[in-house]
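Example record used in the benchmark description.
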Amino acid sequence: MPKKATIEDMEIEIESNVLIPISDPFLKSYAEEDLTEKQLERRNLNWEIVFKAWSQSKESILSKKNRKTAFLEIAEEHQITELKVKRLFTRFWQRGLNKNAMLPDYMHSGGKGKVRELSQEKKVGRPRIYGEEEQGINITEDVKKQFRHVIKKYYRKSEKLTLNDTYQYLLKEFYSNKYHEGESVKYKVWDKSKVPTYNQFYYWYKKTEEPQLDIQLRYSKKEYELKHRPILSHSALETDGPGTRFQVDATIADIYLVSSFDRNLIIGRPVIYGIMDVYSRLITGVYVGLEGPSWIGAMMTLDNMTMDKVEFCKQYDIDIDESEWPAHHLPETIIADRGEFEGYGVEQLINNLNVKIENTSPYRGDLKGIVERQFRTINEKIKRKAPGAIQKEFRERGDRDYRLDASLNLEEFTKIIIHLVLNHNQRTIEKYPLEKAMIKEHLTPSPLNLWKWGLSNRKGSLQTVQNRSILRLNLLPKGKARITRAGIKFKGLSYGSDKALNDQWYLKRKSERIDVVYDPRSMDKIYIPYIDGRGFDTCYLLEMSSQYRGESLEEIEFYQQMLQELKQAESLNKEKKD
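Model output (structure tokens):
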């Protein structure tokens, strides 16, 4: 109940810290639409009592001497007890002298969240409307232990049993009689009135459910991390600007290609490699090859990443301006799969070029989800339009073999990929996390705009390549060539160089094996690196191998293998005739 005090006394008590400020323990916000009809009815009725008395008898109610009499008069007028009146005014004063102070505290009713100690003497809960006269059993602590036991033993296992199967094991272990029928063991479940129902089992499982643990034990931790973990951030937060982090990925295209030597020959499905800047989403490097995801393919992509894209596109008869694809740099960090970027080649990349390599954990492709998502989109576009594309994984009987529709060779397919990359670099990115400064400048979030804006307004970590020839010595694959009288032999091709001719290698170093560096995208040249690592000699394809000029290594190897098979078939035919 309120008591009388002077302002002076209260000010002194506040200054001396006898009275201290605290947060209002009763302060709450209520939305009218969230209140039930019963709550509103009780509130309005109680408010009518309190508001009328407070308006007419405020002085009497606040006076300690006259308060009891005032409460009795209010109780008599509204046909309620004095205790009820006292409680209403207590709530009114405690809870801010407003209408919602009269709301009943139904949230504290019923012991919500509290677990009752039960026994099997009397069944609690709503009686069954249908079914047996017996009403089942209570879920005591012992029964809960049985639930926990079977969930741990059967449900949280890699066999992935259903909850219903787990419930059957519960009945078999704890609520059945075991008997032998011949050599087999069988179980007879007790009467339904003596066992917990499936609904009870399901209720208590959901009440104590641990989804993270269930997924990790039923599937794997990798499955949880990949598909079910909370996603509370995005990749752009890890970057300071263009060049901070590049993501690299390879995907096998859903299309079959034909040989450039003979378009009737199908050579297989190409692999598309791509490198993307995390900050701007700009594709900075691309490579299309026929070898599976490998170190060589990854290195070709890195080589393309540092290449002048105007020059690169010109090789495929595509004319662009530098502003359409301005990327020709090394980043600070490259994020890749473990396969392509784990091994001997990574060390020289790190040591010679000062580029950090971060390999994702096994089965965690989501850690480089930006590039994976984009190249999946490119693959889907190819699948819809290009001839020879895989239309569905499993063909039905009588369906046409889509491989017979293949008509693109590797060079033509690479042209398509270049056009798709150029289109991507100009496309507006949905749901890009724009910075405040970007919004202020009305920036359209396309990869090209973000790249240019980042270079002007953010730190970035792009490294310009001073000597691309030295870079290529570090990136291009290495092999062993053999010096012969017919030239320098490598991969079945013949090469020659001015140095070899002037220094008489074909006579002095005949049959000697030497280290060479080659570009599998075009086998017109191979390179003999200097011992000091600062340069190389270039070897050119000789006329005797001129039919392979301008072709990739995969095409050449495919054609050579086909010729070998034809020779073997011819040899077998001769043997049969003889």
